[in-house]
Amino acid sequence: MRFKYILKFAVITMLLLIVACGNGDEASTTTVEESSVEESTSTTTVEESSVEEPSATLTVLATTPMIGEFVKKVAGDNIELNILMPYAADPHTFEPSPQDVKKIEDADLVFYTGLKYESVNLLKLLQNSVKSQELLIEVAARINPIEFKEEGHDDHDDHGDEEGHDDHDDHGDEDGHAGHDHGIYDPHFWFDPTRVALAVGEIRNELIKLDPDNKDAYESAATSYIAELTALDAQVEALIQTVPSNDRQIVTTHESLGYLEARYGLSVLVAIIPSVTSEDDVTPRQLVSVIEEVKEQKVKVIFLEAESPTKSSEIVAQETGATLVSGLWVETLQENQSYIDFINSNVNLIVENLIKYGHEDDHDDHGDEDKHDDHDDHGDEDKHDDHDDHGDEDKHDDHDDHGDEDKHDDHDDEDDHEK
Q1: Domains parsed from the chain with CATH numbers
Q2: What are the residues whose beta carbons fall under 8 Å from the beta carbon of 288, sequence distance 6 or more?
């Protein structure tokens, strides 16, 4: 009896030990597994952190759609591009919003036109909001810019220095447009594809400085786009050569086609709104000067810029009989329009109308020449007849005179003989 009791106690004790050992192993296994999970989670976090840092893209800001187009062609998808001004908007009247300030502050690089193209207020905002002044890239200053023509005031020669000085005084800072006037240099360099190619090279260099890891991509894209610009330059040259050289004189609303003139041999006679950007700044004296120039040069067509006012142009057209042609875009791109489309559209518009109205001038000139020739022919006949008449009279008079002299001499000789 006592033996059986001892045996049961031993069996129960062994069972308890077995159960305890089993629980201990599970706890140990669970602890190990939990530790492994934590280590795995920690490793994953480190790996994710190391992947995120190199994948961050540059944030680049362009002030205008035109500059943005050039940046996009070089950078592609390697950057996040923001553009301050909307498409088809007049850059001279653009006012930045609070959201735009945030875009400037967040930008790793800022490209702007420069040469006083952007307003004074916008330029100050850029300078005060950008992370560093070294990140502000003035594109137009780097492409060998050309100068405006004497502030666009061709009437200086006609009216003398004193009157030109008066005009300058009238347009002083008090008028409030000092923030909109262009400076000495013309910022509209996009009317010369060869200078756009220079701008593309500058954009490429600045992107490589900030993002050397994508150097090959930037260089390849820039080279490809420059080749397109070279072909565009040849195409524009060929188009303009189709216009007779005597018909390549143009008048526009605003002084903005200087690069087209300098590159391709067009002659921009006068701008109705000279170098200023508001029609309110055009004085009556300047308007009269434009009218006189248009009449003197027999200009038959005036090109209206879509971004400029038209009131002064309409007055000039009424006074001169010139035809107004609309559709010229000079300051910005329209939505979904490329730079190449922009140039082709403008140049085709100019060439087609110069040829059209130039032919009318040629017809008028031939008419005048015919009339002039007829007049000259009659004049020659008259002169010839007069000459003949006078000649006959002269000969007759001479003959009579000589005859009288001869008779007189003979008479004298006879008298002497009689004596």
Answers
A1: 56-145+189-242 (3.40.50.1980)
A2: none
